Protein backbone atom coordinates (compact mmCIF):
# COMPACT_ATOMS: atom_id res chain seq x y z
CA UNK A 1 0.00 0.00 0.00
CA UNK A 2 2.85 2.42 0.80
CA UNK A 3 3.83 4.62 -2.18
CA UNK A 4 0.66 3.72 -4.09
CA UNK A 5 -0.86 6.58 -6.11
CA UNK A 6 -4.46 7.20 -5.07
CA UNK A 7 -7.32 9.66 -5.48
CA UNK A 8 -9.30 10.86 -2.45
CA UNK A 9 -12.76 12.40 -2.22
CA UNK A 10 -12.46 14.95 0.56
CA UNK A 11 -15.26 15.34 3.06
CA UNK A 12 -13.81 17.43 5.87
CA UNK A 13 -11.01 19.67 7.08
CA UNK A 14 -9.62 18.68 10.48
CA UNK A 15 -6.75 21.12 11.00
CA UNK A 16 -4.60 23.52 8.98
CA UNK A 17 -3.04 20.78 6.82
CA UNK A 18 -5.16 17.75 7.62
CA UNK A 19 -8.30 16.52 5.83
CA UNK A 20 -10.42 13.40 5.99
CA UNK A 21 -11.81 11.67 2.95
CA UNK A 22 -12.72 8.45 1.17
CA UNK A 23 -10.46 6.63 -1.23
CA UNK A 24 -11.68 6.92 -4.79
CA UNK A 25 -10.62 3.46 -5.90
CA UNK A 26 -12.38 0.44 -7.42
CA UNK A 27 -9.69 -2.00 -6.32
CA UNK A 28 -9.20 -0.74 -2.75
CA UNK A 29 -12.80 0.21 -2.00
CA UNK A 30 -14.07 3.41 -0.38
CA UNK A 31 -11.69 3.27 2.61
CA UNK A 32 -11.54 6.22 5.00
CA UNK A 33 -8.23 8.06 4.70
CA UNK A 34 -6.46 11.16 5.97
CA UNK A 35 -4.92 13.66 3.59
CA UNK A 36 -2.02 15.94 4.50
CA UNK A 37 -1.43 18.93 2.31
CA UNK A 38 0.47 22.19 2.71
CA UNK A 39 -1.77 23.85 0.12
CA UNK A 40 -5.59 24.07 0.39
CA UNK A 41 -7.57 21.06 -0.82
CA UNK A 42 -11.10 21.15 -2.22
CA UNK A 43 -13.28 18.18 -3.16
CA UNK A 44 -10.64 15.91 -4.66
CA UNK A 45 -6.98 15.15 -3.92
CA UNK A 46 -4.48 13.06 -5.83
CA UNK A 47 -1.38 11.86 -3.98
CA UNK A 48 0.55 8.87 -2.68
CA UNK A 49 0.19 6.77 0.47
CA UNK A 50 2.90 8.01 2.85
CA UNK A 51 1.85 5.97 5.87
CA UNK A 52 -0.48 3.29 7.13
CA UNK A 53 -1.62 4.13 10.64
CA UNK A 54 -3.84 2.55 13.27
CA UNK A 55 -5.96 4.78 15.48
CA UNK A 56 -7.43 3.50 18.71
CA UNK A 57 -7.63 -0.30 18.76
CA UNK A 58 -8.19 -1.18 15.13
CA UNK A 59 -9.14 1.82 12.99
CA UNK A 60 -6.59 1.47 10.17
CA UNK A 61 -6.24 4.48 7.90
CA UNK A 62 -4.04 5.35 4.96
CA UNK A 63 -2.30 8.71 5.12
CA UNK A 64 -2.11 10.34 1.70
CA UNK A 65 0.08 13.31 0.80
CA UNK A 66 1.43 15.13 -2.20
CA UNK A 67 3.85 13.03 -4.24
CA UNK A 68 6.75 15.41 -3.53
CA UNK A 69 6.11 15.90 0.18
CA UNK A 70 8.32 14.03 2.64
CA UNK A 71 6.80 13.19 6.03
CA UNK A 72 8.81 11.28 8.60
CA UNK A 73 7.19 9.52 11.56
CA UNK A 74 7.72 12.41 14.05
CA UNK A 75 6.10 14.86 11.59
CA UNK A 76 3.05 12.62 11.30
CA UNK A 77 2.81 12.00 15.03
CA UNK A 78 2.77 15.75 15.63
CA UNK A 79 0.04 16.30 12.97
CA UNK A 80 -2.15 13.61 14.51
CA UNK A 81 -1.53 14.67 18.10
CA UNK A 82 -3.92 17.60 17.48
CA UNK A 83 -6.81 15.28 16.59
CA UNK A 84 -9.51 15.07 19.23
CA UNK A 85 -11.16 11.77 20.26
CA UNK A 86 -8.62 9.54 18.55
CA UNK A 87 -5.15 8.29 19.40
CA UNK A 88 -2.50 7.14 17.00
CA UNK A 89 -1.43 3.69 18.18
CA UNK A 90 0.92 2.54 15.42
CA UNK A 91 2.29 3.78 12.14
CA UNK A 92 4.34 2.48 9.20
CA UNK A 93 5.83 5.22 7.05
CA UNK A 94 7.06 5.42 3.48
CA UNK A 95 9.84 7.84 4.47
CA UNK A 96 12.21 6.90 7.27
CA UNK A 97 14.96 8.99 8.78
CA UNK A 98 17.68 7.64 11.03
CA UNK A 99 20.86 9.11 12.43
CA UNK A 100 23.98 7.45 13.73
CA UNK A 101 27.72 7.58 13.84
CA UNK A 102 31.02 6.28 12.61
CA UNK A 103 32.51 5.90 16.06
CA UNK A 104 36.30 5.99 16.38
CA UNK A 105 38.56 5.27 19.32
CA UNK A 106 42.23 6.20 19.42
CA UNK A 107 43.95 3.26 21.08
CA UNK A 108 47.64 3.22 22.12
CA UNK A 109 48.87 1.89 18.80
CA UNK A 110 46.08 2.55 16.31
CA UNK A 111 42.65 3.98 15.61
CA UNK A 112 39.68 1.67 15.43
CA UNK A 113 36.09 2.17 14.41
CA UNK A 114 33.06 0.37 15.75
CA UNK A 115 30.88 -1.83 13.57
CA UNK A 116 27.69 -3.50 14.73
CA UNK A 117 25.52 -6.25 13.33
CA UNK A 118 21.89 -5.83 14.18
CA UNK A 119 19.52 -8.65 14.99
CA UNK A 120 17.37 -8.17 11.89
CA UNK A 121 19.90 -7.73 9.13
CA UNK A 122 23.05 -9.47 10.31
CA UNK A 123 25.39 -7.32 8.21
CA UNK A 124 28.14 -5.05 9.52
CA UNK A 125 27.39 -1.34 9.64
CA UNK A 126 27.36 1.60 12.08
CA UNK A 127 25.07 2.20 15.08
CA UNK A 128 22.02 4.30 14.21
CA UNK A 129 18.29 4.60 14.77
CA UNK A 130 15.11 6.49 14.05
CA UNK A 131 14.72 10.18 14.75
CA UNK A 132 12.14 10.97 17.45
CA UNK A 133 9.86 13.95 18.02
CA UNK A 134 11.74 17.14 18.89
CA UNK A 135 15.23 15.76 18.34
CA UNK A 136 17.99 17.29 16.24
CA UNK A 137 19.95 14.90 14.04
CA UNK A 138 22.93 15.03 16.42
CA UNK A 139 20.72 14.32 19.44
CA UNK A 140 19.31 11.25 17.71
CA UNK A 141 22.80 10.02 16.85
CA UNK A 142 24.07 10.51 20.42
CA UNK A 143 20.97 8.83 21.93
CA UNK A 144 21.03 5.87 19.54
CA UNK A 145 24.77 5.33 20.01
CA UNK A 146 24.30 5.39 23.79
CA UNK A 147 21.33 2.99 23.64
CA UNK A 148 22.93 0.50 21.26
CA UNK A 149 26.51 0.56 22.55
CA UNK A 150 26.45 2.36 25.95
CA UNK A 151 29.16 4.73 24.65
CA UNK A 152 29.12 8.47 25.37
CA UNK A 153 30.54 10.07 22.26
CA UNK A 154 31.65 13.47 21.08
CA UNK A 155 30.33 14.44 17.65
CA UNK A 156 33.03 16.01 15.50
CA UNK A 157 32.26 19.16 13.51
CA UNK A 158 32.30 19.15 9.71
CA UNK A 159 31.31 15.55 9.03
CA UNK A 160 27.74 14.77 8.01
CA UNK A 161 27.30 12.00 5.48
CA UNK A 162 24.03 10.86 3.96
CA UNK A 163 23.16 7.31 3.00
CA UNK A 164 19.97 6.67 1.05
CA UNK A 165 18.45 3.30 0.24
CA UNK A 166 15.16 1.44 -0.05
CA UNK A 167 14.71 -1.27 2.56
CA UNK A 168 12.44 -4.02 1.30
CA UNK A 169 12.16 -2.24 -2.06
CA UNK A 170 9.60 0.31 -1.00
CA UNK A 171 10.62 2.38 2.03
CA UNK A 172 12.60 5.52 1.24
CA UNK A 173 15.26 5.69 3.88
CA UNK A 174 17.49 8.66 4.61
CA UNK A 175 20.30 8.12 7.10
CA UNK A 176 22.64 10.79 8.46
CA UNK A 177 25.98 9.68 9.85
CA UNK A 178 28.24 11.84 12.00
CA UNK A 179 31.81 11.19 13.00
CA UNK A 180 31.83 10.43 16.71
CA UNK A 181 34.78 9.99 19.04
CA UNK A 182 34.61 7.51 21.89
CA UNK A 183 36.99 7.81 24.85
CA UNK A 184 36.72 4.20 25.91
CA UNK A 185 36.38 1.02 23.88
CA UNK A 186 34.24 -0.60 26.55
CA UNK A 187 31.02 -1.43 24.67
CA UNK A 188 27.89 -2.97 26.14
CA UNK A 189 25.48 -3.85 23.37
CA UNK A 190 21.72 -3.54 23.58
CA UNK A 191 20.82 -7.20 23.10
CA UNK A 192 17.30 -6.50 21.76
CA UNK A 193 18.75 -4.60 18.78
CA UNK A 194 22.37 -5.63 18.32
CA UNK A 195 23.72 -9.13 17.78
CA UNK A 196 27.47 -8.42 17.68
CA UNK A 197 30.04 -5.63 17.68
CA UNK A 198 33.65 -5.34 16.61
CA UNK A 199 36.37 -2.67 16.80
CA UNK A 200 38.34 -2.72 13.56
CA UNK A 201 40.87 -0.62 11.69
CA UNK A 202 39.65 1.09 8.54
CA UNK A 203 41.17 -1.55 6.26
CA UNK A 204 39.23 -4.32 8.06
CA UNK A 205 36.09 -2.16 8.10
CA UNK A 206 36.22 -1.97 4.30
CA UNK A 207 36.40 -5.77 4.15
CA UNK A 208 33.50 -6.35 6.54
CA UNK A 209 31.00 -3.76 5.31
CA UNK A 210 29.08 -4.78 2.25
CA UNK A 211 26.99 -1.76 1.25
CA UNK A 212 28.57 0.74 -1.14
CA UNK A 213 27.25 3.74 0.75
CA UNK A 214 28.87 2.41 3.95
CA UNK A 215 32.18 1.93 2.11
CA UNK A 216 32.02 5.51 0.83
CA UNK A 217 31.39 6.73 4.39
CA UNK A 218 34.34 4.72 5.74
CA UNK A 219 36.61 6.41 3.17
CA UNK A 220 35.30 9.85 4.13
CA UNK A 221 35.74 9.04 7.81
CA UNK A 222 39.33 7.93 7.21
CA UNK A 223 40.19 11.32 5.72
CA UNK A 224 38.41 13.19 8.51
CA UNK A 225 40.04 11.13 11.30
CA UNK A 226 43.52 11.79 9.84
CA UNK A 227 42.85 15.53 10.00
CA UNK A 228 41.75 15.30 13.64
CA UNK A 229 44.78 13.31 14.84
P1 LIG B 1 17.32 1.65 12.02
O1 LIG B 1 18.67 1.28 12.57
O2 LIG B 1 17.34 2.95 11.30
O3 LIG B 1 16.24 1.48 13.02
P2 LIG B 1 16.81 -0.92 10.79
O4 LIG B 1 17.56 -1.60 11.88
O5 LIG B 1 15.36 -1.18 10.67
O6 LIG B 1 17.05 0.64 10.82
P3 LIG B 1 17.62 -0.60 8.06
O7 LIG B 1 18.87 0.18 7.97
O8 LIG B 1 16.36 0.13 7.76
O9 LIG B 1 17.55 -1.33 9.46
O10 LIG B 1 17.75 -1.85 7.13
C1 LIG B 1 16.64 -2.49 6.56
C2 LIG B 1 17.12 -3.24 5.33
O11 LIG B 1 17.69 -2.30 4.40
C3 LIG B 1 18.25 -4.22 5.61
O12 LIG B 1 17.75 -5.50 5.94
C4 LIG B 1 19.03 -4.24 4.34
O13 LIG B 1 18.47 -5.16 3.46
C5 LIG B 1 18.83 -2.85 3.76
N1 LIG B 1 19.99 -1.97 3.99
C6 LIG B 1 20.54 -1.66 5.19
N2 LIG B 1 21.60 -0.83 5.04
C7 LIG B 1 21.70 -0.57 3.73
C8 LIG B 1 22.57 0.23 2.94
N3 LIG B 1 23.55 0.96 3.49
N4 LIG B 1 22.38 0.26 1.61
C9 LIG B 1 21.39 -0.47 1.04
N5 LIG B 1 20.52 -1.24 1.73
C10 LIG B 1 20.67 -1.31 3.05
Task: Give a structural overview.
The chain has 229 residues and is of the alpha+beta class. The chain has helices spanning 73-81, 137-149, 202-208, 212-228; strands spanning 5-13, 18-23, 32-36, 44-55, 59-65, 88-93, 95-106, 111-118, 124-125, 128-130, 153-165, 172-182, 194-200. Strands 7, 8, 9, 10, 11, 12 and 13 form a seven-stranded mixed sheet that branches. The chain has a five-stranded mixed beta barrel with strand order 1-2-3-5-4. A hairpin with a 5-residue loop joins β8 and β9. Adenosine-5'-triphosphate binds next to β10, β11 and α4. The site of adenosine-5'-triphosphate has 15 residues, from β10, β11 and α4.
What is the compact description of this entry?
This protein is an alpha+beta fold and 229 residues long. It has 4 helices and 13 strands. The termini are far apart.
Amino acid sequence: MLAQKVGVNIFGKLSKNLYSGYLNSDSLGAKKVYVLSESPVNEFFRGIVVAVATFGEDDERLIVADENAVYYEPDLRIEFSYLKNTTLTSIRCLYEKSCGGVIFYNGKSNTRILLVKNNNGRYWSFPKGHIEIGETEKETAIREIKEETSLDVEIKDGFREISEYSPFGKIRKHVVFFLAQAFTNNVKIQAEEIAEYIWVDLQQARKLCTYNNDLRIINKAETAIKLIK
